[in-house]
Protein 1
Amino acid sequence: MNQDQVKTALLSIENSPLDFTLIFSGKLSKKINGLYKPETREIIIHNRNFSDDNLLLYTAIHEYAHHLHACFRGGTLSTRAHTADFWAILHRLLEKAEAQGLYKNVFAASPELAELTETIRTRYLYENGNIVKDLGMHLLRAHELCVSIGGRFEDYIDRVLRIPRTAANMAVKMYQYNLNPSIGSDNMRFLAGIKNVDERMSAEASLLKGKSPDTVRIEAKRRTVGSQPPEAEDPKLRLEKEKIRLERTIASLSKRLDEVERELGQC
C-alpha cells in the first residue's frame, strides 16, 4: 500500500472532521513505527519498518485515532496521549476496519492462540472472578456473625483479615449484584462501582459481547454525564439485559434453595 491508499482506507473507516496529511517517511526506525503531529495534523509512518500491509495499517489506524482524538479536543492533545478516550477511539476504528475487511484480525487466525485464549479465560479470568465473588458471599456471612457477637465488622476487616475495606466492599457488591465472573475480577470491580442497575447491566452486556474495557468505561461515562443525546434502546439489547436479569434471579434463587435444603437436612 502507498500513502494515498492508506489515507483513503482510513477515511473509509471513519471520516475526519479536519483534514490531515499522511506521509511515508521512507525510513527504518528502531524506536517507533509512526507518530502524529497535532500542530500540523500530520501522520508519519516509518514504512520501512513493515513487510506486512496489515501491520502497517494497524499503525496507521493507531495514529489516525490520535488525529480523531485531537479533532474532538479542538485540534490539540494533552501531554498524556494514550488516555481511555484514545483507546476507545482506536478500538472502535479497528472494529470498523475488521468489519469492512480492510484490517485482518490475526488473533482469530491462530488455532494455538485461540486454544491458549480459552485456557486463560476459563482457568484464570473466570476462576479468579468466581473466587472474588465467593469471597463476597463469605464476607456477608462474617458481617452477620460480627453483628451477632457485638463486634464491628470494619474492625474485623482491618485487624483480623487485614485487607483493605474498599476491596472487601467491592467483593461483597460483586456477590450481591451477581456479576458474571467470566469477564474477570478487574472488570467486575468496575461494574461493582456502577450504582444504577440499568447502567451496570448495559456495561456488563457490552463486556460480554466483546467490547474492550476502555470502550465500555467511556460509554458508561458518557451516559452518566449526558455528553451524548439519549438514543432509543435497541430491542435486542433490551432482551439481552432482561435475559441477564432473569439468569441472575434464577441463580440467586437456586443458591438459596440449596442453602435451605442443607439447613433442613441438619434439623
Protein 2
Amino acid sequence: MKKIFLLILLGSSLTMYAQDPEDGLRLSWFTPSGTARSNALGGAMGSLGGDLSSNHINPAGLGFYKSSEILLTPKFSIQTNNFNYLGKVSSSDKTQSSFGSIGIVFADGKRKNSWTSSSFSITFNQIANFDNHTSFSGKNNFSSYSEKYLEELINDRADTLAALNNYIFGSSLAFRTYLIDTTAAANGAVTGYQSLVPISTGVNQVYDSYTKGSYNELAFGWGGNMDDKLYLGASIIMPMVNYSKSTYYSETDITSNTNNDFGGFVVNENFSSRGWGLGAKFGIIYKPESFLRVGFALHTPQLITFRDVISADMTTNTEGYAGLQSESSSNLNDGYAGIREYTVATPTKATISTSYFFAQPNKPTQPLGFISADLEFVNYAATHFYANTYDEASTNYYNAVNATIKSVYKNNVNFKIGSEVKLNGNWMLRAGTAYYGSPYKDETIKASHWSVSGGIGYRTNKHFIDLTIVNTATKDAIFPYRLNDKPNTYASVTGNKFMFNIGYGIRF
C-alpha cells in the first residue's frame, strides 16, 4: 500500500486538495442497480433480454421486444455499517430512497428483410447511490493526522512563506493554527517543522463523514433480431454523477496535561463533485437452440468531465502556547471555495453470459423457467485521470495519480447468477446472487460486495408488476489519513444494505 501515499506528496504542487485513488474507484466498484426484475436475478441479464435493463447491461437484449413498453422502478433501502478502528467498535446507519429507473421502449414487430423485429429505447437508471454515513473513533499513540501535513512540508522543502500560503486546503491551515510549528537552531534560524501533537502519550481520534449523491446513466439504445436467432444491439450512454462529502475529523489529548501546548484540533472538509460524460455499450446474443442463449457485451470507457468544489477549516487548541487558533481555506482564497476540473475515463468492462431454459417433460415447447449466469471482467487499474488544462504541473500531477492507481488496483472478475420459475397462472418466482471481489492488489485489505436477492412478478398482456428484495453485504477499509513514512491505521468496515424494489410497467 505504500505507493498509494505518493499522492499526498504530489498534491502540493497544485496547492489543492489531493486527488485520492478512491475518487476513481467510486465510479467502478459498486453493485449496479437496474429494474426490479434484473435486481431479483442478481443482475444476470447479459443473455436474457426482454427487459429495459438491457440498455445498460447488454443492448442486444432490446432485440427481444416485439411490443412497446414503459416502466417505472422506485426503490427504498437501509444501509448499516459496522466499524472497528484500533479495537473500538462503532456503527452507523442511513436510509435511502429514489426512483431507481424509468424507461420506455418502442418496438417494431414487423419483419423487414432479414430483421424479424427491432426496437429503440430511452432509459434513465440510477446505477449507484452514494448516500452513506461513516463514523468511528479510537485511541492512537502511534500516528497522527497532523503528520500528513508535516510530511508534505518536509518533503516539499517548503519555506515558511510557502507553508503559510501554498497549501490552503491543508498544510497552510495546520501551520497557521500552530498544529504544525517550526523547529529552530540555537541562533533562531528555522531548521524544519514539527507537530504539536503528543503522539507518544496518545490522542483520541474521531472520524465522521456524510456522503450524498448518485451515479446515473441516460441511455439511448437500439436492438435488432435476425430470425429469432441472432440479436444485436448498441446504446449511447450519458453518465451523470453528483457526489458530495462533508467530513469532520478531530484529535484530542487523552492526558490531563495542560502544559504540553496541545488540547486538540478539529478539521472540517466539504467537497462536492459534478460530472457529465459520454460512453457506449455494444452487445450480441445468439440462440443456438431454443433452450440456450449465449451473450457478449462490451462497455467502452465512459469519459466524464468533473468540476469539484472544495473548502476546509481548522481550529487548534494550543493551550498556553497561543490559545485557540482558527483558519479557513476561504479566508486564504479571497472568500472563495477551491475549484478543480478534470476528466476521468472509467474502466472497460466485458461480460460473457449464458442462459438455459427448462420446461416440463410433457410440454417441452413451453418454458417453465430459466437459470442465467454472467461473468464480468473489469480492470479497476485502468481508471485514468486527465487534466483539463495543459500546463505541465497539472499534467504531471494526474500522470502521478494514474501511476498510483495502477499500483494499487487490479483486474477482477465479478460473478452473477439468477433464476426464474413460472408459478401457477401469471406469477413468477425469482432469486439471484452476485459477488464482486476485491479491487485492491494488497491482499491484506479484505474487500467485497456480495448480494443475495429474491422477488416475485405478475404478468398480464398489458400490465406487469415486480417486487424485489436485495441484501448486499460489504467488506472494505477506510483510512482516515495516509502517511508515507510509517504504517497506516484504518477502520475495518462491514456493511449491510437492505433494498426493497418495486417495478410497474405497461405494454402498448
Protein 3
Amino acid sequence: MRAYDIILKKRNGHGLTRKDINYLIDGFVKGNIPDYQMAAWSMAVYFQGLSEEETKYLTESMINSGDTINLSSIPGCKVDKHSTGGVADTTTLILVPLVAAAGVPVVKMSGRGLGHTGGTIDKLEAIPGFNVELDIDTILKLAMKSGAVIAGQTGNLVPADKKLYSLRDVTATVDIISLIASSVMSKKIAAGADKILLDVKTGKGAFMKTKEQALELARTMVKIGVGMKRETVALITNMDQPLGRALGNALEVKEAILTLRGDLKGDLYDLSIELASEMLLMAKTVRDKIEARTLLKDLIEKGRAVDKFAEIIENQGGNPGVVEDLSLLPHAPTTTPVLASMDGYIWELDAEKLGRAAMVLGAGREYKEQKILLEVGVTLNKRIGDAVTIGECIANIHSMNFHNLDAALGLITEAVRIETEKPKEYPLVFGRIAD
C-alpha cells in the first residue's frame, strides 16, 4: 500500500476503506507520510468529499492515534460540550461550574484561540495563577474532588488531529464538513465523556456562514457520535452578532463571572441556560426543560454556581478572589469610546469584524505561536435592535496604547450599521438535532 495510491483513489472520486485511512493516518503521525502528501489528500477530499462511512473510519483512526481518557472512575453521567467557535462566546466558563453545581460532573478539554474567535484556555490564563496544563491523573483527581475541571488538551490526545489541522490551516482545506466533524468528534470521544452536546454556530462570526452548512455539520457530527455509541445532541445557534458584550480574554472572564453571579442577563446568559438544560436532560438528572431551567437559575441566584467557579479556580492554582473582586483581573490602561454616527436603531453588529478588531488590538492570534495580550479587547454597550442617539457611546476599545487603535476603530465602524427603522428579531437558537 502507498500513500500515492490512496491520494489517487480519492482524487478520482472513489471510496476509501478503513485499511486505507488507517494506513494514511498512522503513517502521517509516525512521520512516514510527508506533509505534502497529506496536503494533496486533504485537497482531494475538499473536492470529492468523504462518505458517512469514510468519515467514521477517519474519526476512529484519529482517536486511535494517541491516548484516550477513561472517566469511568468518576461517579455519574459525564456530559461534554463543544462549540464550533464564535465571538464573545464564554459559555464554557459558565456551563462547567453551573452544570457541576447541579450535580453533573464535567471534564472539559479546551483549546486556544486562532483568528477572530477566542479560546477558552487563553481566557482562563487571564485569571492570576490559573493552571491549564494538567496531566490526565491530575484531571481525574480534580474531577473526583469537585466534579469539574477545565484543562488544555493533553499532549498525546488525538495527535493525528493536531498535525492534520495545522496542515489544513495553511493549505485552504479547513472548511470541509467531514474533516471538521472528524476533528471535533475524535477529540470529544477520546476525552471520555458519556454524552456530547454540540453548539454549532452559524452567521457572520461563525465558520459555518449559513444555516444549511451548520445543519449539515451538526447532522454529520451527531451521526458520528451515535455511531460510536455516544448520545450526541446539537443546537444550531446564532452568531451574526457577538454572543456576549465583551471581546477579549480578561474582559470575557469578567463577563462570565458577572453572569454566574446573576448580575448580568442577556444572550450569553440565555444560551448558557439553554445549553446547561440540555446537559442536565442528557444526564437524566431532571425530568424536563422547565425543571432544568428553574434549577439552573436558582443555582445562579443563590450563589452556588459562582462558588463552584471559585472552587475550580482554586483547585487549578488560581486566585479564587477574582469572583468577588474583578479588579484582580488584568485591565488595559487605555479606553477609547466609539460613538454613534446618527439617531436610529442598531441593525448590524458584524461578529467577524468585531472579533477582528479585538484581534488587531492583540486579543487574538494571526498565527499559532503569537503571544496575546490578555487585557485588551472591545466591550459593547448596545445589541441589535437597541435604540441609539447621535454621539452616544455604543462601544469601548480597551488597548495597551494607541498602537493599532485606528485599525480597530475602522473595523468596528464597518461592523456597526444604524438605520432609522427597528430591525426584525431573530432567534438565538435556530434548531436542535438529535438521533
